[in-house]
Amino acid sequence: MSLSRFPWLTKIAVVLFDAFLGGACMYGAIQWRYDFLNKPIPNNVDENASFVMMGLVAALWFFIGVHRAIWRFTSISDIRKLLEGVFLAVILTPLILFLFVDRAEHFPRSAPLISGALFFVLLTVSRLVVMLIQNGDIRGLFKNNGKNRKDAILIGSGSSLYNYLRDSYRQSGGPGYNIRGLIDTDDSYQGRSIRGVPVLGNMKTLPKVYARLGTDKNNKPMLLATDINPDKSQAYELVKTASEIGAPLARIARNTGEKLSPFEAADLIGREARALDIAPVKRLIAGRRVMITGAGGSIGSELSRQIAALSPAQITLVDNSEYNLYKLDQLIESLLPDDGPTEWSAHLGDVCDSPCMEEVFKAHKPEIILHAAAFKHVPLGETNPIETLKNNIGGTKNIIDLAVKYEAKSFTLISTDKAVDPSNIMGASKRIVELLTMASEAQQSALSASAVRFGNVLASAGSVVPLFEEQIARGGPVTVTHKEVNRYFMTTEEAAALVLQAAALNVNQSLNKASIFVLEMGEPVNISRLARQLIRLRGFVPDRDIKIEYTDLRDGEKMSEALTGADENLESTYVKGVMRFTGDVSDPASMLRRIDNLLEAIDRRNKPAIRKALKTVLPDYEPNGGLS
Questions:
Q1: Cα Rg of the chain (Å, integer)
Q2: How many Å apart are CA 54 and CA 9, to the nearest integer?
Q3: CA–CA separation, 522 vs 9, rounded Å?
Q4: What are the Cα distances from residue 421, in Å, to 20, 141, 378, 432?
Q5: 318 vs 346, 362, 376, CA distance in Å?
Q6: What is the 3-state secondary structure (H, E, C) of 497-511?
Q7: Distance CA 320, CA 346 (A)
Q8: What gap in Å lies between CA 202 and CA 156, rounded to an integer?
Q9: Contact, 536 vs 600, CB < 8 A?
Q10: CA separation for the pair 513, 30 (Å, rounded)
């Protein structure tokens, strides 16, 4: 049975232990004093004094609040309360003996001093021993209080609350807030205190606690979440409650100590961001020439940033957006020292332009190619099907052909979950380039080719999250296609790291076997609920302050997506959270011919021929929109 489930039992145990310890110290002090005088103890004064001491300790502990302190989270303020309690107990003991037991006759005058000192030392040592065993050190005992700071209420698990208080009080000037109280999400320490700060309640009682503490309109307490990776339900509940009570909300920023950051959409996806294995990635990238197509996009620019830290010999950046390429060139320049080992170059060009791309390959001879260039917007793809197919399929074929011609070591395609049983042109084009990648690998042995399937990337161009943010900033309405639409989400950092991880994993497996990699992404996120939470994050109440409108599914959209098809059997890799299946194209040469026929029809812009060629590659796909 865990005592944390019964906090009152823990409090009683603490009081009984300390009361017994206090009685023993008083008994021992009187025994020692009479033994020193070599006299017998008259009228059982030692037993009477020890019982009175025990009773006083029990009463005072409840009155002062010593019983609320959690030993592993002891602070100087807790030690101060112990000193106060001990002082009162040893002063009141002779007074009660005087009033009720033989007028304190034969009670040694030195007993309060001896027993008090011994009792205080034992109380302090017992707490510090527990603190040292469970926390590993006692430096968190000390805290530095600051005045004239904004009030705050900390919210989190017991351990995260303690860690924040300990680390922030170690810093010069202490925490940046006046901590008024704690909300324990585990509901294990209610009615107690951590490092001298009272635990005021749990998530259910937070509105009442906030109403009691937030009476000053000019200094409404900030809610600070101390769990770095809260689960989805906890994050939803916290955001919802903060919105309803009108409380400002922040969280501990990841990887930055006690610094704060606002809650963002990434906090609502319901799982911890995956930490992948960087060692094989560094071995693959270090000292090699790397090309990134679509480098100016959300994923491409994050790939460039991560690769710059891995000491490649050269980074070749390719994008057809002048502005995006300019911004990325500035970023890389700030990341790489002028005298460093890495060279980089930025090339404005279209992956569909074969002569342009050949110039880049001939000049730089990339060894590692990460192909992020693509059209990704589903509704625009439906209304512009030929351009989407030309860019996504034709561009990919150009890059693969040049990778083979110039003897690149690795090619990694960035795909999408919309490639699984595609219902739109964008998804169909991505499924075709997956087949192209697998067929190309099977046809030659020098190139390690692989693909990576993503869900939706938070904050990427075309994602619903930036759209919702813009709509909220305008005052609404927020448009959602359907109440039941669900999507998988990952952060941009995760997406880029998965691409690099896939490239490294695929290089180390047998050639002529192209793998498609996916990330375990937990449960899909309901888009309607995500919209509501984003509205709350910005301090508004859904349907009251910001309206939500449901527009119905557009051409090519599904209610939900999947990361794998029914006939695709995932297998684990040695990297936790990364799965793969090995693609198998039964007749690679035939597949490549069919894709060539499709590209010829695309070049002629012959829609009937395109539909016919699509059927030969994807028999189950039925075009919508501009090709229907």
A1: 34
A2: 18
A3: 38
A4: 71, 58, 14, 11
A5: 6, 14, 17
A6: HHHHHHHHHHHCCCC
A7: 11
A8: 9
A9: no
A10: 85
Contact 514, 443 (CB under 8 A): no
585 touches 591 (CB < 8 A): yes
Name the residue among 565, 562, 561, 560 with its Cα closest to residue 583: 565
CB 341 within 8 A of CB 311: yes
Q: How far apart are CA 602 and CA 446, in angstroms?
A: 29
- pLDDT 10s digits, 134-189: 655 565 555 544 455 778 889 988 888 888 887 776 665 556 677 878 888 887 77
pTM check: above 0.85: no
The string over 76-86, giving b where at least 16 C-beta atoms fall within 10 Å of a residue's C-beta and e elsewhere, is eebbebbeebb
- For 549, counting Cβ atoms within 10 Å of its Cβ (0-12 exposed, 13-18 middle, 19+ buried), the class is exposed
Strands 249-252, 578-582: parallel, antiparallel or unpaired by DSSP? unpaired
Count of positions (residues) in the chain: 628
548 DSSP β-pair partners? 478
**Cα(85)–Cα(277) distance, integer angstroms:** 53
Q: Which two structure tokens, joined as six digits, stand for 552?
A: 């119905």
| HEC secondary structure over 22-89 | HHHHHHHHHHHHHHHHCCCCHHHHHHHHHHHHHHHHHHHHHHHCHHHECHHHCCHHHHHHHHHHHHHH
Task: Look up residue 393 and give its two tokens.
Answer: 């399929």
Residue with tokens 């698990």: 157
Q: How far apart are CA 169 and CA 257, in angstroms?
A: 12
Convert the pLDDT of each residue in 62-78 to its tens digit.
888 777 776 766 767 77
Cβ-contact 322, 330 below 8 angstroms: no
